[in-house]
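User: Need the bound-state model for nicotinamide-adenine-dinucleotide:
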Amino acid sequence: MTKIKVAINGYGTIGKRVAEAVSKQDDMEVIGITKTTMNYDLEIALEKGYNLYTNNSENFKGVEVKGTIEDLVKQADIIIDCTPEKTGETYKPLYEKYRKKAIFQGGEKKNIGESFVAQMNYNDILGKDYVRVVSCNTTGLCRTIGALYKKYNIKHVEAQLIRRGADPKDSKKGPITQIAPVIKKGDLPHGHHGPDIKTVIKDLDIHTMALAVPSSIMHLHCIQVELEETVTKEEIIELLKNTTRIKMIKYEAGFKSTGDIMEYARELERSRNDLFEIAVWEDSIYVEKCNRVSWYQAVHQESDVIPENIDAIRAMFSLMSAKESIKKTNETLGIK
Ligand code: NAD
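Assistant: Bound-state model below.
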């Protein structure tokens, strides 16, 4: 089988995880990574056998640089752009110049490519050239709310996002001692997440709000869904249990906070302690007046989007069905 040649532009938090996930597949391979500066990540990347490409070779004295980013793009079948937010758009003209497919991440503008969450709209991106794997929060919301959307008629969704203040290695962001409403100029009603979800589930009536808190690694969501139909709590539990890339957890089993979830992830002994699944507190699921469903869920910000990148590659080359790709990706990444 000819493997799809994948270039990783930007070997940071997401890029290194995508590179490893690609390396675990038998239908694709990493042909190179890019970096702008030399740091501890590079030493390990070279040990793993990745070829380095950069436009800043002066920063990499004593290291074998295989070429420029343009050299890498020319050889690739597809580029997974994992550069910092709003940087991917500056590379799109280069990808277009060589007529290469590209996947962008959630920090890019919505119109850079088709928004994607594998279990919701795999068929929409079959054969497409430019795709955006949506943010970690949007992915998490689409997986769970999407499960209800597929089975029932949703009247309206309200969701509150309790967002981590900073990424684990980000020493410049906060808050450190406060709770901060996420308010951005021109970003009403209340943030970009609701509108972002609608780029995947187009006719969903949803409103979201967000707070940033002094925490890292995980986000927590409080979700309320109003349905046209009446349902029972047991039906919702069954539905979410049978939905891929969701991990049901219980407060009474010791999952008292996001800290316990990450401790559980460490016990799984996956690479980098990643938890690709959205953790849903089963004992938080509540049904009021037979049609208002609410629950808490948590998202490992660094990893839930990784399987989506792998499925997006397969869909963009029309290699297999959504069901087959999700199954293959899950098996290779250890998702049960
Ligand atoms: P990061 O800062 O950890 O990594 C970015 C990498 O790109 C670094 O290796 C950096 O050296 C490199 N880089 C910087 N400028 C570059 C340039 N001009 N050209 C090529 N490479 C360059 O960023 P990240 O957290 O991995 O985020 C990447 C994308 O993924 C963003 O769109 C972000 O919004 C999205 N995302 C991040 C997370 C997360 O938790 N970190 C979660 C979901 C989505």
